[in-house]
């Protein structure tokens, strides 16, 4: 019994370590990809198309702050959800609709994200609900497609590829939502975003 108990503790520890490692890797990779995606999107909108390498070079300057603010946002959402659920949902709308753009473009934080999203809370919530439903539908489809392959590796790759595509689409939703929020915040234009982002200083 003692041996079984120790094995159980080891299994739980290994599982938690693996989960934590997965979250950390996802956060680090995601911060670079999201920052690069914002850069490329703004460059394109400003009439100066940029490639992935340019985006990643830019992301090196924004990824670390984005990781910090995103961790704090996830913590607050988790606390709000545990408390009464509704606060967690409200914070999800306030953060997910604008935090990416606020950190990457304006180099500001959660306070600014709340300020932007509060002014257009319900339209932002509606857009995020639709995006979330799409994510869930694709996740279910990807799971079934991945499970349909006899080769587990091929199935996992097919599933990951499909989720990568929808992840990019959701990043686009976040960028468009942020731009829309900024347009209602003093009539921000693409040129304004480009100047704040430093697009004109890029080679």
UniProtKB/TrEMBL annotation:
Claim: Transmembrane helix is one of the keywords in the record: yes
Protein known as: DUF4013 domain-containing protein
UniProtKB keywords: Membrane, Transmembrane, Transmembrane helix
Transmembrane segments: 20-42, 63-82, 88-105, 125-142, 154-176
């Amino acid at each position: 019994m003692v041996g079984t108990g120790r094995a159980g503790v080891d299994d739980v520890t290994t599982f938690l370590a693996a989960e934590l490692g997965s979250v950390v890797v996802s956060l680090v990779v995601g911060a670079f990809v999201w920052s690069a995606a914002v850069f490329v999107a703004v460059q394109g909108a400003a009439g100066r198309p940029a490639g992935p390498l340019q985006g990643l070079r830019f992301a090196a300057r924004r990824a670390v702050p984005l990781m910090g603010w995103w961790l704090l946002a996830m913590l607050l959402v988790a606390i709000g959800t545990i408390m009464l659920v509704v606060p967690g949902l409200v914070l999800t709308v306030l953060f997910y609709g604008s935090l990416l753009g606020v950190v990457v473009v304006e180099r500001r934080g959660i306070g600014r994200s709340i300020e932007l999203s509060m002014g257009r809370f319900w339209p932002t919530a509606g857009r995020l609900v639709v995006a979330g439903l799409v994510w869930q539908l694709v996740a279910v489809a990807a799971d079934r497609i991945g499970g349909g392959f006899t080769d587990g590796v091929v199935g996992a790759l097919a599933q990951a590829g499909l989720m990568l595509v929808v992840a990019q689409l959701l990043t686009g939703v976040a960028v468009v939502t942020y731009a829309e929020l900024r347009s209602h915040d003093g009539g921000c234009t693409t040129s304004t975003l480009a100047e704040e982002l430093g697009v004109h200083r890029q080679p």
